[in-house]
Amino acid sequence: MKKGFMLSIAMILILALIVGCSSKNNNNTNASPSVEASKSPENSPESSPEKSPDKPAEKVEIIYSVWGTAEEGKVVQTTADKFNSSQDKIQVKILTIPNENYMTKLNTMATAGQLPDAGIMREDGVIQWASEGMLNDVSSMYEGSDSKPLDSLAYTYQGKPVAYAAANEILLMYYNKDMFDKANVPYPPSVLDKAWTWDEFVATAKKLTIDKKGKHPDEAGFNPQSIVQYGASVENFTWQLEPWTLSNGGGFYNTDGTEVRIGEDASVEAIQKVADLYLKDHVAPLSVGQTDDGIQRTIISGTVAMATNGAWNVGTSLNAWKDAGNHYGVAVLPYMKEKVTVNTGGANVVFSQTKHPNEAMEWLKWYGQEENNWGLISSGIWMPVLDKWYKDETFTHKWVDNPNFPPYDQYKSAVVDYAQSAARPASWFFTNHTTDFNALLGSTLGDVWTGKKTAKEAISANLDALKAANKGTK
């Protein structure tokens, strides 16, 4: 990692877990029981200690839960201590729960009426918890403030915000500059207006795919069983397939998440095109869509020239790879019919069992401000959540003009501008039961990636079950 990070590596590790990329591998259920907060008697005036006029009032204690190790929790507590010392009304205490049983522990605490006041939550569990009455309405959190996050970062249930993402993340494309230079092939476009069509993307990938004899897929004598360099990889970890269905005029769901669209011809066709990169075009390695480590498997492994994945990879892996003498660039995604990407981000929530919702929201509002997590932003793990960082050049330069990023103009157009003009919220911002839906869709598509079934055959055979999963009746 570059020198000058404002946070320790431990801080980066725990908060990287909070972002969309790493939270995707937690297999705990998000289901929560509908319970009311346990009732405990309030201190009566008779039982409360008498306060002298000169004695300051005690601070309200807010418990904020995170997942990670005890050491990682201590790092987050250090950040909370900055907040604690900045004012005299609220004291934040960090509750650290091991990642592997984070949601199980929260479920147990919910049943007992002992949830913390606030916490971080996986993206795919937010709406389900809101539907169970376990999350507080946070629509008032930013009233009278200029620090409200982008509207696309609001998790909404029944038209009301129930959480805001702690960071903004979009899907984009990375590429190995040295591979492009060696093949004398122009770099992928970083400007949305010049985005490649899907056919242009595939044609370029063929120029960068090479077998042991130096042959390309469109040349006589090419052997798909002896490929030494692949031209492309489109991440097929389930949630990252959504932008392709949207780009082709389909989608996973309708606009409010109440109806499944994955069975529509446009959605099926988009997924088949992704599968055909391996099966038919011979430009991508086989991936069965079970792990969310695409950049490590492709760009960093040195086997793939360009690959799609999330913006967080700049900070979590590509900086170290660049420091080892490698060269990469960023570009906008190719498109099928519409130019689309999706944004995501782990959710900061206020639990409905709290007795101090206003104080909990005050903490989250402070915690979400860029200056309070700048090390994560400047390293490339997080993207800012406030509109001004995307539209005010002074703030954009402060964010992007640093050695951890690709050149300013390239990163600004491929990431900053792209996030404003082409990003749609990932479906878990507004759709219930995405955990079950994504798990079923992922298993459904297993035979598609290996060519045992077409996308149409696999999805049609499981469409009723996918619709039931969306309704929570699987």
Distance between the termini: 44 Å
- State mean pLDDT (0 to 100 scale): 88
Q: Give the CATH architecture of the largest domain.
A: 3-Layer(aba) Sandwich
Which radius of gyration do the C-alpha atoms yield?
A: 23 Å
In the CATH hierarchy, what is the superfamily of the largest domain?
Periplasmic binding protein-like II
Protein name: Sugar ABC transporter substrate-binding protein
Biased composition (Low complexity): 36-47
InterPro entries: Bact_solute-bd_prot1 (IPR050490), SBP (IPR006059)
Region (Disordered): 29-56
Kindly summarize this structure in a few lines.
The chain is an alpha/beta fold.
Provide structural commentary.
This protein is an alpha/beta fold. The chain folds into 2 domains: 182 residues, Periplasmic binding protein-like II (D-Maltodextrin-Binding Protein, domain 2); 215 residues, D-Maltodextrin-Binding Protein, domain 2 (3-Layer(aba) Sandwich), CATH 3.40.190. 37% of the residues lie in helices and 15% in strands. The chain is built from 19 helices and 13 strands. The strands form 2 sheets. Strands 6, 7, 8, 9, 10, 11 and 13 form a 7-stranded mixed beta sheet that branches. α1 packs across α3 and α17 runs antiparallel to α19. The N terminus is likely disordered.
Helices, strands, pairings?
Blueprint: H1 9-18, H2 20-23, E1 60-67, H3 70-86, E2 90-97, H4 102-111, E3 118-121, H5 126-131, E4 154-157, E5 160-165, E6 169-176, H6 177-183, H7 198-208, E7 210-211, E8 227-233, H8 242-247, H9 265-279, H10 294-297, E9 304-310, H11 313-323, E10 328-331, E11 341-344, E12 347-350, H12 357-367, H13 374-379, H14 388-391, H15 393-400, H16 408-421, E13 423-425, H17 434-444, H18 446-449, H19 455-471
Parallel strand pairs: 1-2, 1-3, 8-9, 11-13
Antiparallel strand pairs: 3-12, 4-5, 5-12, 6-9, 6-10, 6-11, 7-8
Helix pairs in contact: 1-3, 17-19
